[in-house]
Design brief:
The protein has about 130 residues and is of the alpha+beta class. The chain has a single domain, classed as HIT family, subunit A, CATH 3.30.428. It has 3 helices and 5 strands. Helix 2 crosses helix 3.
Length: about 130
C-alpha cells in the first residue's frame, strides 16, 4: 500500500510544495511544530532512511541542505533543526524545523493549526528562497 507521501508524489494528495527535482520533494508539514516546518523525502518509497541506497541517501541529505538554506532565509529563526524519526509515516523523510529555542523541536507538544491561506503563503515565501 502506498504511503501518504507516495500519494503526494503521485499527485493523488495535494501538498504545499517548496522544492522538487526528479528524485526528491520538499513540502510543508500539515501538522507543523512551528511555521515553516518542512518535510524532505525521496520520491522512491523506502520506509527506513538507512535502507536507502548510499547515492539516494547522500542525495537526500544534499537536497535537504539546499532546502534548509532557503528556509533559513525565508523564516526568521536562529537555526534550522533536523530530525529523522521515521515512525509516523512508512516513507523515509527528514524534518526541517525553524528553531528559536530547544522546545521548537519537541514533537510531543501540540501542533499548529494553520489555514490553507497561511500554508500557501509560507510555502511561496520559502520556495522563492531556495536556489
Amino acid at each position: 500500500m502506498a504511503s501518504v507521501f507516495s500519494k503526494i508524489v503521485a499527485g493523488e494528495i495535494p501538498a504545499y510544495k517548496v522544492a522538487e527535482d526528479e528524485r526528491f520533494l520538499a513540502f510543508l508539514d500539515v501538522f507543523p511544530l512551528v511555521k515553516g516546518h518542512v518535510l524532505v523525502i525521496p520520491k522512491a518509497e523506502v520506509d527506513y532512511i538507512f535502507d536507502l541506497d548510499e547515492e539516494t541517501y547522500i542525495g537526500l541529505q544534499a537536497f535537504a541542505r539546499k532546502v534548509a538554506l532557503g528556509l533559513k532565509k525565508a523564516i526568521v529563526c536562529k537555526r534550522i533543526g533536523v530530525a529523522v524519526i521515521g515512525l509516523e509515516v512508512p516513507h523515509a523523510h527528514i524534518h526541517l524545523v525553524p528553531m528559536n529555542g530547544m522546545d521548537d523541536l519537541n514533537f510531543s507538544r501540540p501542533k499548529l493549526k494553520l489555514s490553507p491561506e497561511e500554508m500557501k503563503q509560507i510555502a511561496e515565501v520559502i520556495s522563492k528562497e531556495i536556489i
